[in-house]
Write a structure and sequence with these properties.
The chain is an alpha+beta fold. It is built from 4 helices and 8 strands, in the order E-H-H-H-E-E-E-E-H-E-E-E. The strands form 3 sheets. Strands 1, 2, 3 and 8 form a 4-stranded antiparallel beta sheet that branches. A two-stranded antiparallel sheet has the order 4-5. The longest helix has 30 residues. The two termini are 25 Å apart.
Length: 184
């Protein structure tokens, strides 16, 4: 697994994700692989690996759960906090924010899975020999799609969620560059 966290409005959310994202994803994927292995023993199929769609769904659910932990769990804890200073520290990851990009290489299927929240972009560069046999160049493949105000799919999604509201102006979403993030 590889991850990049691009914090904004402070470092607290990206630091929280640095400590929590990979363990959460590893746990969720371990559960998924265990369930797939259990299904193998009760059926006659020969493949015990989860499908790419199952992995994608697990990554999405884990990202959503982590964001809920950052925001909702912090709010629950803040009311139990003994001081205003403690409350401010508890809320810091929810107040700041971070984009996140995670890549997971599945050694069983030899597939690379990429999950993103925000406008960080995963790009694969592959060294390829030139057709004339002299030298090489790099082929570039984008592995993720930016979630920002320039993305037509995000424009549509936000328009449906906020009909009649001016959410995006000059490619910025309520002043921010990204349309999705952890925290904020």
């Amino acid at each position: 697994m590889f991850a990049v966290f691009d914090g904004h409005n402070g470092w607290e959310t990206s630091a929280w994700l640095r400590e929590n994202m990979i363990p959460a994803v590893v746990g969720a994927l371990s559960d998924l692989y265990s369930r797939a292995k259990g299904a193998l023993s009760s059926s006659s199929t020969s493949n015990s690996n989860p499908t790419p769609a199952d992995i994608e769904q697990t990554l999405k659910q884990t990202f959503q759960r982590l964001d809920d932990d950052i925001v909702h769990t912090a709010l629950q804890q803040v009311f139990k906090s003994p001081s205003r200073h403690s409350a401010t520290n508890i809320l810091a990851p929810a107040y700041a924010g971070s984009c996140a990009l995670l890549a997971f290489y599945d050694s069983h299927s030899h597939l690379l899975h990429v999950a993103v929240t925000g406008d960080s972009r995963a790009v694969l560069g592959r060294k390829v020999a030139n057709l004339d046999g002299k030298g090489h160049h790099y082929e570039v493949r984008e592995l993720s799609v930016d979630q920002n105000g320039w993305n037509p799919a995000e424009q549509t999604r936000l328009g449906v969620q906020h009909p009649g509201e001016l959410i995006i102006k000059n490619g910025r979403v309520m002043g921010w560059g990204m349309s999705r993030a952890f925290g904020d």
